[in-house]
Design brief:
Blueprint: H1 2-29, H2 39-54, H3 65-80, H4 89-103, H5 108-127, H6 134-153, H7 155-215, H8 221-248, H9 266-275, E1 280-285, H10 293-312, E2 319-325, E3 329-336, H11 352-361, E4 365-370, E5 376-383
Parallel strand pairs: 1-2
Antiparallel strand pairs: 2-3, 3-5, 4-5
Helix pairs in contact: 1-2, 1-4, 2-3, 3-4, 3-5, 4-5, 4-6, 5-6, 7-8, 7-10, 7-11, 9-10, 10-11
């Protein structure tokens, strides 16, 4: 049903125009009034009335010209055959539709010119009817003028609708741009943190290589030279990485002097949230083990963001945090009992954008949203590689 409704919403008027054209063509071909045309003239009139009605199909591309041509062509055909236009119901419907379209034009000048076209053309058509009366020449154009007036009255509503659609389109573009900016900022933030982790690991490797080289005998020249080259390459890589980190930091960013947190700091995080006024129950399933530094940091940030959302946005009275260790993945869950939490990425910066990007880095998955029983639930799964243990 939705597809049918969408079809008629989009093409319903076009379908009516085609039906009116077909009706006009058939009615013209089957005319039996005295003096009706025959032969080539008949078929010319059939094609002419069909074309006059179908001209309205171009109304979107030519909003003024298409309905104006419908009326002007009708007036011209009435000189060829005075009964051709007045006897066709389809042409009358097309005339009303054309008058409404001319009245609905945005430009006031075009709308007023359209009114003149409607009234003059209608008067010409009626005047060329052999059976017309003086009253018909006056009142029949007024009927079509009322159609123009209806279109003119609807113009403000049409403009408001178009303006609303334009605002919605602009807002959608702004939301998409904000989402792209949020993703870029979160990726940069995550990259800085992971680069810090890698830089720390490289520093440890360089120090250990240097320590091993200094403990080696002086006679082991070749091995000492190899370790020296490794140490030098490590120091060069470390210098380049620090230069990259400085370039990635914003002007207002401060250097992080404290070690990056991990799940070992989860108890402190929960205590901070409790101190802020939100009771939190923490449950650890499975046997905790050492995680890779990058994954450990991301897991902490995901839980931190989940609790922050519960504290600031969900209006919750309590929250639950569950961390489940297994041989293949780390499962994280933050649940609250609030009436609602952010289920879409509407903010710029952190939030679900950051969680999604962190999960994506490690090839995991996440879900976030309200549940039937009430509250908001954030779940994330982070796969463990072979070095997790």
């Amino acid at each position: 049903m939705s597809r049918v409704r969408l079809f008629f919403t989009k093409y319903g008027l076009d379908l009516l125009i085609v039906i009116a054209a077909v009706e006009s063509a058939i009615s013209t071909a089957l005319r039996d009034d005295p003096g009706h045309p025959t032969g080539p003239k008949l078929w010319f009139e059939v094609l002419a009335v069909t074309a006059v009605v179908l001209t309205l199909l171009w109304r979107r591309r030519f909003p003024f010209a298409a309905p104006a041509v419908t009326w002007l062509a009708s007036a011209g055909l009435s000189f060829l055959d005075g009964l051709l236009i007045v006897d066709e119901a389809g042409l009358s419907v097309a005339g009303i539709g054309a008058a409404l379209l001319l009245g609905n034009l945005r430009r006031g000048t075009q709308a007023r010119v359209g009114l003149a076209i409607v009234l003059c053309s209608a008067a010409i058509v009626i005047y060329n009817d052999p059976a017309h009366t003086s009253g018909d020449v006056i009142f029949t154009p007024l009927v079509f003028g009322i159609g123009w007036l209806l279109g003119f009255a609807l113009r403000d509503r049409t403009e408001q609708t178009e303006a609303a659609e334009e605002r919605a389109t602009r807002a959608e573009r702004e939301r998409e741009a904000a989402a792209r900016i949020a993703v870029a900022e979160e990726r940069a933030r995550i990259a800085r943190e992971l680069h810090d982790v890698v830089a720390h690991a490289v520093s440890v490797m360089v120090l250990q290589v240097g320590a091993v080289r200094h403990r080696m005998p002086e006679t082991d020249t070749q091995d000492r030279e190899t370790l020296k080259n490794v140490e030098q390459a490590g120091r060069t890589a470390l210098a380049e990485m620090r230069r990259l980190l400085n370039a990635m930091r914003h002007d207002g960013d401060e250097l992080e002097l404290l070690p990056h947190p991990g799940l070992d700091n989860l108890d402190s995080l929960v205590d901070d949230v409790r101190a802020a006024g939100l009771p939190v129950r923490l449950e650890i399933r499975g046997t905790p083990f050492a995680l890779p530094p990058g994954l450990d940091l991301s897991a902490y940030r995901i839980l931190q963001e989940g609790l922050t959302n519960a504290l600031k946005h969900a209006r919750a009275s309590q929250a639950e945090v569950e961390v489940q260790y297994s041989a293949t993945e780390l499962r994280l869950e933050v649940r609250d009992d609030g009436p609602g939490g952010p289920s879409t990425d509407t903010g710029v910066g952190h939030g679900l954008v950051g969680i999604r990007e962190r999960v994506r880095i490690f090839g995991g998955g996440m879900t976030a949203g309200t549940v039937r029983t009430g509250g908001f639930v954030l779940r994330a799964q982070l796969p463990l590689d072979g070095g997790a243990r």
